């Protein structure tokens, strides 16, 4: 895989070619990644996969017009042709007074701390096979597990490089290690499945393969013989595995493009109390070894820690340059780069733990549900209406009872946020980390 110096040299070559062909300004973003994964099933090697990819995207501006194009052909002649075509496309594109490069005075100056995103240890296929085998063996050893969908282990490297015609030129790399196991319990139509998976920048931060496998097996067996719950309005507790999705809906509604287009259920609520005072949502792009840590965003702006929600109050929007210009605000360093045109994304997020234990959080629940899995995409980003399929466990008289499945939970995100309560069981190993969350008065309906 290419290094940062090579990637930045290609970016500089593209920008120089774009300027030579008539662009007033340009930026180029290079991405490279390699990964290797091994999957085993029922004690036998099932798949070994290796993938590598490199792309570079060019965005050019001719007056108030712009165009983006990307390629994986890095021959000098191909890059020059790409730049020429991009400029020609921009000349016939519609004008957009809001698009442009990041303001020069806001560009990152390299002030982010060392993020420690790269692990020097690179496992080979044999080490990955051993990890996958150990995870599956541990899962299958749990009493009640009857079959397996496999154990897996992977390792990957990635690189992101960005250069602009205003002089910004930076790159950073990252690694990831992953372990997983998926197993089945029961027989015939009564079969249930569950999984355990962890990803970390450094292998030293992962649980052991046996711990991953044991957790997958125990989760699967706990789901056997589920019932369909009685319907009604009742408290719903979200396990940390699924509670992070609520933060995802919040972030999507705070994204500048959604606000600028009027398609967010949070429109008009900036600076308002959307959550209870005890709830905060913290973003930390500088988290050591974080899965979404980054020193700068997709347009070259520095990324800074902030609170998206502080003491229940909604902070400012998440803005790239274009959405910031549309709203008459300053960009916030939340641009992401999947291709030529930036989008908006947040970095590492978490809801801090409260002093209340999970047991205490459900102690007064006479009848409720604990959700451990969500299915479907039934969320309206404009109105906040929420309806998703779920499975998990009944809560009866403050205690977790038997497994349940084939039911839906419904509500409205604004009402759900307004009554949100958190437990103390926060663990910081995901990109979005939350403790167990409780929402009262949701509608539960059996299938």
Automatic annotation (TrEMBL):
Family matches, as InterPro entries: Metalloprtase-TldD/E_C, Metalloprtase-TldD/E_cen_dom, Metalloprtase-TldD/E_N, PmbA, TldD/PmbA_N, TldD/PmbA_sf
Gene Ontology terms: biological process: proteolysis
Annotated spans, Disordered: 95-125
Coiled-coil features, chain-numbered ranges: none
Gene3D superfamilies, sorted: PmbA/TldD superfamily (3.30.2290.10)
GO MF terms held by the record: metallopeptidase activity
Cellular component annotations (GO), alphabetically ordered: cytosol
Top-level taxon: Bacteria
Location of the Metalloprotease TldD/E central domain: 119-224
UniProt-listed SUPFAM superfamilies: Putative modulator of DNA gyrase, PmbA/TldD
Metalloprotease TldD/E C-terminal domain mapped to chain residues: 232-446
Domain Metalloprotease TldD/E N-terminal: 27-90
Family classification: Belongs to the peptidase U62 family.
Descriptive protein name: TldD/PmbA family protein
Species, as recorded: Pelagerythrobacter rhizovicinus
Phylogenetic lineage: Bacteria, Pseudomonadati, Pseudomonadota, Alphaproteobacteria, Sphingomonadales
């Amino acid at each position: 895989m290419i290094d940062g110096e090579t990637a930045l040299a290609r970016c500089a070559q593209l920008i120089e070619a774009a300027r030579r062909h008539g662009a007033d300004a340009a930026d180029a973003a290079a991405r490279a990644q390699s990964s290797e994964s091994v999957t085993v099933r029922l004690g036998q090697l099932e798949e070994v996969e290796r993938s590598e990819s490199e792309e570079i995207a060019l965005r050019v501006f001719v007056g108030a017009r712009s165009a983006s194009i990307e390629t994986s052909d890095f021959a000098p002649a191909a890059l020059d042709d790409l730049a020429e075509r991009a400029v020609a496309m921009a000349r016939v594109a519609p004008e957009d007074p809001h698009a442009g490069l990041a303001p020069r005075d806001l560009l990152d100056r390299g002030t982010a701390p060392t993020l420690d995103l790269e692990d020097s240890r690179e496992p080979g296929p044999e080490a990955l096979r051993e990890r996958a085998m150990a995870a599956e063996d541990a899962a299958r050893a749990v009493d009640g597990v009857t079959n397996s969908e496999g154990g897996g282990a992977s390792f990957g490297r990635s690189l992101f490089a960005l250069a602009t015609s205003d002089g910004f030129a930076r790159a950073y790399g990252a690694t990831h290690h992953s372990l997983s196991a998926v197993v089945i319990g029961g027989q015939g139509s009564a079969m249930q499945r569950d999984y355990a998976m962890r990803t970390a920048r450094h292998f030293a931060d992962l649980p052991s393969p046996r711990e991953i496998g044991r957790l997958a097996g125990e989760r699967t067996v706990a789901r056997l013989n589920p019932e369909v719950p009685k319907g009604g309005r009742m408290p719903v507790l979200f396990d940390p595995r699924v509670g992070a999705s609520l933060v995802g809906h919040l972030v999507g509604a705070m994204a500048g493009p959604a606000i600028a287009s009027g398609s967010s259920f949070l429109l008009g609520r900036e600076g308002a109390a959307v959550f209870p005072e005890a709830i905060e949502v913290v973003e930390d792009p500088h988290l050591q070894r974080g899965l979404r840590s980054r020193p700068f965003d997709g347009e070259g702006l520095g990324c800074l820690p902030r609170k998206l929600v502080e003491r229940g109050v909604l902070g400012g929007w998440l803005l790239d340059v274009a959405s910031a210009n549309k709203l008459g605000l300053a960009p916030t360093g939340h641009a992401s780069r999947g291709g030529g045109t930036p989008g908006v994304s947040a970095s590492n997020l978490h809801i801090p733990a409260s002093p209340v234990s999970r047991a205490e959080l459900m102690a007064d629940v006479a009848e409720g549900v604990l959700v451990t899995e969500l299915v479907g995409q039934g969320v309206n980003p404009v109105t906040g209406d929420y309806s998703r399929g779920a499975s998990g466990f009944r809560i009866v008289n403050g205690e977790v009872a038997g497994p349940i499945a084939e039911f839906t939970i419904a509500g409205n995100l604004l009402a759900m946020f307004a009554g949100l309560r958190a437990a103390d069981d926060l663990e910081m190993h995901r990109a979005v980390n939350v403790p167990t969350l409780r929402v009262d008065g949701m509608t539960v309906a059996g299938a």
